[in-house]
Specification:
The protein has about 400 residues and is an alpha/beta fold. The chain folds into 2 domains: about 10-45 and about 305-390, Aspartate Aminotransferase, domain 1 (Alpha-Beta Complex); about 65-295, Type I PLP-dependent aspartate aminotransferase-like (Major domain) (Aspartate Aminotransferase, domain 2), CATH 3.40.640. It has helices spanning about 10-20, 45-60, 70-85, 100-115, 130-135, 155-165, 190-200, 225-230, 265-280, 285-295, 295-330, 335-340, 350-360, 380-390; strands at about 30, 90-95, 120-125, 140-145, 170-175, 205-210, 235-240, 255-260, 345, 365, 370. The strands form 3 sheets. The protein has a 7-stranded mixed beta sheet, sandwiched between helices. Strands 1-10 form a two-stranded parallel ribbon. A two-stranded antiparallel ribbon has the order 9-11. The relative contact order is 0.17. It binds (2S)-2-hydroxybutanedioic acid (LMR). The site of (2S)-2-hydroxybutanedioic acid has 6 residues, from loops.
C-alpha cells in the first residue's frame, strides 16, 4: 500500500528552517518562518504564560478529558478578546482547535459540509497553507487581487472589483490584521466597504486572525473583524494564540461561527462533531493557560504590557530599516516597510534576488520576498539594508 504514496512538495516556509540550520555561516540571518524573536534571537516564554503555567501546575489535579468543544471559559474568553467585552453570545458557536491552522482546517471542512459547491476566495497572495489545505480538501477556490506591486500597499480597487464577482454562499477569506505574507492591511473605511460588498453579494466572510496584537494594538487589530461581525448575518472566525501568547507549540486556537440565534445550536453541534471526527478533544494546556491569563486582571495586564513591548519593538525595527534604506538609497521607495504592520513585509523582490540574499549574504526569507521583521535586531538592520541594495532590489 505505502508504495502507492507520492512524494509531497515541501512546504516553502518550513523548508527554510532546515536550510537555515544547515548553513554553517555564523553571520546568517533568519527572516523566514513567522516566529517572534527578541533582540537576542530567542522566542521567549511570556511572563504571564510562565505564571499561568505555574498556577496550573499547582492547582491541576487531573488530566482527564475536557469538553469536546474545549472548555467553555476558553471559548468565551476568546470571544471577548476578539469581539469586545460583551459579545452577543446568542449568535456565537465556538470550538477550541489545535492552533490557528486547526481552526482554518475545521472552518474549511464546515464550509464543505454546509455548501460543498461553495468557492472560497483567497487574497493574491495569501498564506500558502490556505491554498494547500483547500486543494487537499478538493474545494473550489479563486483569488482576489490584494497587493499592489508598485506601491506595496493594498490594491483596493482590484480587491473590490474581483470580490464583486463572488456569489451568494461563496466564502471570502480575509486576514483580520497583519496580512501574511504582505504586511499591507485594510483601513477601517476599507473594511466598511468590504462589508457593504459582502452584504450586497451574500458572500460569507471567514476571517483568519492569527496576529491580533502584533499590528496596531490588541483592540485595534480586531477592528475590522468587529465591524464585519456587526454588519453581516453570518461570519466565521479562525483565531490563533500562537503568536500573541507565544505558545506556538501548544497548538491553541479557536473557530467561531456567528449566525442568527436560531442556527447557533446546529452550528455548535457541527463544530463539536468535526472535532470528534478529526482528533476528538482539542489540546487543553495552551487553552487553559490563555484562559488563566485572560480571566485574571493582573496576569492579563502583564501579558498586555509584554505584547505591547513586542509590538513596539517590531515597529521600531520597521522604522529603523525604512530609515536605513532611505539613507543608503537616497530615495523613499522603501517607505512601505514602516507603513506595513505585523511580522511580515513583502519586499517585492524577484526570486533571483531573494536567492542572492541567501547565497551571497546569508539572509533567509521566503521566496516571494516575505521577510519576518522580528528576525532582525538593531545590529542586523543595517546589514540587511546594505544587502537589499547590493542585490539590486
Ligand atoms: C508563517 O507564515 O511563517 C507562520 O504562520 C508559520 C507557518 O506555520 O507557516
Amino acid at each position: 500500500m505505502l508504495n502507492a504514496l507520492k512524494p509531497q512538495p515541501a512546504d516553502k516556509i518550513l523548508q527554510l528552517i532546515g536550510q537555515f540550520r544547515a548553513d554553517p555561516r555564523n553571520d546568517k540571518i533568519d527572516l523566514g518562518v513567522g516566529v517572534y524573536k527578541d533582540a537576542t534571537g530567542l522566542t521567549p516564554v511570556m511572563r504571564a504564560v510562565k505564571a499561568a503555567e505555574y498556577r496550573l501546575w499547582q492547582s491541576q489535579m487531573t488530566k482527564s478529558y475536557t469538553g469536546l468543544a474545549g472548555e467553555p471559559e476558553f471559548n468565551s474568553a476568546m470571544a471577548a478578546m476578539i469581539l469586545g467585552p460583551s459579545p452577543d453570545n446568542g449568535r456565537i458557536a465556538s470550538v477550541a482547535t489545535p492552533g490557528g491552522t486547526g481552526a482554518i482546517r475545521q472552518a474549511f471542512e464546515l464550509i464543505r459540509m454546509a455548501a460543498p459547491d461553495a468557492t472560497v476566495w483567497v487574497s493574491d497572495p495569501t498564506w500558502p497553507n490556505h491554498t494547500s489545505i483547500l486543494n487537499y480538501l478538493g474545494m473550489k477556490q479563486r483569488t482576489y487581487r490584494y497587493f499592489d506591486t508598485e506601491s506595496r500597499g493594498v490594491d483596493f480597487a482590484g480587491l473590490i472589483s474581483d470580490l464583486a464577482g463572488a456569489k451568494a454562499g461563496d466564502v471570502v477569506l480575509l486576514h483580520g490584521c497583519c496580512h501574511n505574507p504582505t504586511g499591507a492591511n485594510l483601513t477601517l473605511p476599507e473594511w466598511d466597504e468590504v462589508a457593504a460588498l459582502l452584504e450586497k453579494t451574500g458572500a460569507i466572510p471567514l476571517i483568519d486572525l492569527a496576529y491580533q496584537g502584533f499590528g496596531d494594538g490588541l483592540e485595534e487589530d480586531a477592528g475590522g473583524t468587529r465591524l464585519i461581525v456587526a454588519r453581516l448575518p453570518e461570519v466565521l472566525i479562525a483565531a490563533s494564540c500562537s503568536k500573541n501568547f507565544g505558545i506556538y507549540r501548544e497548538r491553541t486556537g479557536v473557530l467561531m461561527t456567528l449566525s442568527d440565534p436560531s442556527l447557533r445550536e446546529v452550528s455548535q453541534a457541527n463544530l463539536a462533531f468535526l472535532n470528534r471526527q478529526n482528533y476528538s478533544f482539542p489540546p487543553d494546556h495552551g487553552a487553559r493557560v490563555v484562559t488563566t491569563i485572560l480571566m485574571d486582571e493582573a496576569l492579563k495586564a502583564d501579558w498586555k504590557a509584554e505584547l505591547e513591548a513586542i509590538r513596539n519593538g517590531m515597529l521600531s525595527l520597521r522604522a529603523q530599516l525604512a530609515q536605513e534604506l532611505r539613507n543608503l538609497s537616497g530615495s523613499d521607495r522603501f517607505g512601505f516597510i514602516a507603513q506595513h504592520r505585523g511580522m511580515f513585509s513583502r519586499l517585492g523582490a524577484t526570486p533571483e534576488q531573494v536567492e542572492r540574499l541567501r547565497a551571497e549574504h546569508g539572509i533567509y526569507m521566503v521566496g516571494d520576498s516575505r521577510l519576518n521583521i522580528a528576525g532582525l535586531n538593531v545590529k542586523t538592520v543595517p546589514i540587511l539594508a546594505r544587502a537589499i541594495l547590493a542585490v539590486g532590489i
